[in-house]
Protein: Major facilitator superfamily (MFS) profile domain-containing protein
Organism: Bracon brevicornis
Amino acid sequence: QTIGQWRLVFLISAANMLFGFIVFMIWGTSDEQPWNNAPEQLDTEHGEELQKLNLKPSLIIQNLYDDETLAEKKERKEHELNNT
């Protein structure tokens, strides 16, 4: 890792950035794309309205501190079903 090697890395990086700059200056545009703007009104005729969830905050907090993964829960439930 000499200064000469780092100089080479810098020059390669600078050339790469310069190449990208030149490509953008030749073919790039700054036209605003149609997907940039959100629709002004929600389309409720063709979709379902969202429903609020009626979850108690204690249930959410309890699940945040649960260390058991989904795979472990599934395995435990399968084990319980097989043993009954």
Summary: DSSP finds three helices and no strands in the chain. Residues 32 and 38 are 13 Å apart (CA to CA). The helical segments are 3-27, 57-64, 70-83.
